Amino acid sequence: MSIRWKTTKGEFVRQVSSFRNTVSAEPGNPFQPAPDRYHLYVSTACPWAHRTLVVRALKGLEDVLPVSIVDWHLASDKGWHFSDAATTPGAIPDTVNGFAYLHELYFKADPEYSARFTVPVLWDKQLGTIVNNESSEIIRMLNTAFDEWSSAPGLTFYPESLRQQIDDVNAWIYDQINNGVYKTGFATTQDAYERNCKAVFAALARVEDILAESEFLVGSTFTEADIRLFTTMVRFDPVYHTHFKCTSGTVAHDFPNILRWLRRVYQMPKIAATVDMDHIKKHYYVSHIKINPTQVVPLWDGPDLTVPVGEFVPRSQRK
Ligand SMILES: N[C@@H](CCC(=O)N[C@@H](CS)C(=O)NCC(=O)O)C(=O)O
């Protein structure tokens, strides 16, 4: 049952997602948009799944796309499992298939499936299969495909005129920060650890510079690039700094512009409710027993993100 991430020379290599279909109104597409036809399976602990929850909330798709939230504990043998809220506050069971484990969903979609059983999963209730399990693609679908039933139709996090800039920033932030913290934390050689840790902090310095002069990653427009970085940065101090040994600095003490941006994003309507720090901390510190055999969970939740930030003023215009 246990499928290992491929590693070469102590290096963590993330697997490529397997289900890559798209919900769209394109004629002939078997996955046509419809309200309550699809179901989203997530973990609130997982930064990749968290992206989909943020876009779902901001687009007002809660009724159009119901969710199941797995238990925060990821078992090394059977993977994610479902709990009810009485056992695990914040969990939502599998109300669609009634499964106990996420892997059952993958085998229902493909009995021959042999890769990892990851969240998020976008499930089609009509065809009884997985549409897509790649967060970067799911957020693009949620951005437009369900606009007919969205409470924020037309609101886009991937505007046509900024696509090139968004893609460019996403590419290095994915490699050096979103996935970079995992490459650092899961490294099993000193060399792989140091190389990846340095890359994380070089990229954070680059982000710090951008956010000194600009309100968001791509100018003054809040885009999917911010959402994708947000779900990593909200975990940075409480988890990645300590658990993944990203110890060359914290957002709270070393990156004032990132901190201000993190607070600004956190304070946007509906975003704070998508952050479940209890699931986040317990998931990493308790599930990864090779990294943290005592399973003790540190107390700190990171900087207080409710501190007001006020109007954005570029560094060059600050007094
Ligand atoms: N490329 C995927 C990555 C998703 C992913 O790695 N999810 C992790 C949780 S953070 C997972 O479900 N892991 C389960 C496992 O490895 O068994 C995406 O962005 O959607």
TrEMBL record:
<dbReference type="Pfam" id="PF13409">
    <property type="entry name" value="GST_N_2"/>
</dbReference>
<dbReference type="InterPro" id="IPR036249">
    <property type="entry name" value="Thioredoxin-like_sf"/>
</dbReference>
<dbReference type="Pfam" id="PF13410">
    <property type="entry name" value="GST_C_2"/>
</dbReference>
<dbReference type="InterPro" id="IPR016639">
    <property type="entry name" value="GST_Omega/GSH"/>
</dbReference>
<keyword id="KW-0560">Oxidoreductase</keyword>
<protein>
    <submittedName>
        <fullName>S-glutathionyl-(Chloro)hydroquinone reductase</fullName>
        <ecNumber>1.8.5.7</ecNumber>
    </submittedName>
</protein>
<dbReference type="GO" id="GO:0016491">
    <property type="term" value="F:oxidoreductase activity"/>
</dbReference>
<feature type="domain" description="GST C-terminal">
    <location>
        <begin position="159"/>
        <end position="284"/>
    </location>
</feature>
<dbReference type="InterPro" id="IPR040079">
    <property type="entry name" value="Glutathione_S-Trfase"/>
</dbReference>
<dbReference type="InterPro" id="IPR047047">
    <property type="entry name" value="GST_Omega-like_C"/>
</dbReference>
<dbReference type="InterPro" id="IPR004045">
    <property type="entry name" value="Glutathione_S-Trfase_N"/>
</dbReference>
<dbReference type="InterPro" id="IPR010987">
    <property type="entry name" value="Glutathione-S-Trfase_C-like"/>
</dbReference>
<dbReference type="InterPro" id="IPR036282">
    <property type="entry name" value="Glutathione-S-Trfase_C_sf"/>
</dbReference>
